[in-house]
Automatic annotation (TrEMBL):
Transmembrane segments: 44-63, 70-88, 100-119
The protein's name: DUF4345 domain-containing protein
Alphabetical UniProt keywords: Membrane, Transmembrane, Transmembrane helix
Organism superkingdom: Bacteria
């Protein structure tokens, strides 16, 4: 079960990253709430896409080899910091509660899953 979830997370992260790299403008309009965060910047979307692609790769690696746990943990920390940035923007009044609610599946639940999956495993 844990391995299947690891593969699913890897697929979600990698697919998101690839879409951000290949089609940044459609991605910008496809993901709920993104277009309300500021004007479209293709370079910025692609930069973040690179991070998501690396995160996906680390979880694919973890699904195959427990020695990838440190790489997956670093990826999970990136996702957590990203989520904390969203929370901080909400606290500071830069994001609405409605926007934060839209963020629950992709911005808040994925890091929680990533942290759990990247926790120390037995060899």
């Amino acid at each position: 079960m844990r391995n299947a979830l690891t593969l699913l997370l890897a697929l979600i992260l990698a697919a998101n990253g690839l879409l951000m790299l290949i089609a940044p403008e459609p991605w910008y309009h496809l993901i709920p709430g993104v277009s309300s965060t500021g004007p479209f910047n293709p370079h910025f979307v692609r930069d973040i896409g690179c991070a998501y692609l690396v995160c996906g790769a680390s979880f694919f690696w973890l699904a195959r080899d427990v020695r990838a746990q440190p790489a997956a943990l670093v990826s999970a920390v990136f996702l957590l910091l990203h989520a904390l940035t969203h929370i901080w923007d909400g606290i500071a009044g830069r994001e609405s509660i409605e926007h934060l609610l839209l963020d629950i599946p992709g911005v808040f639940l994925l890091p929680a899953l990533a942290l759990w999956l990247s926790a120390k495993r037995q060899s």
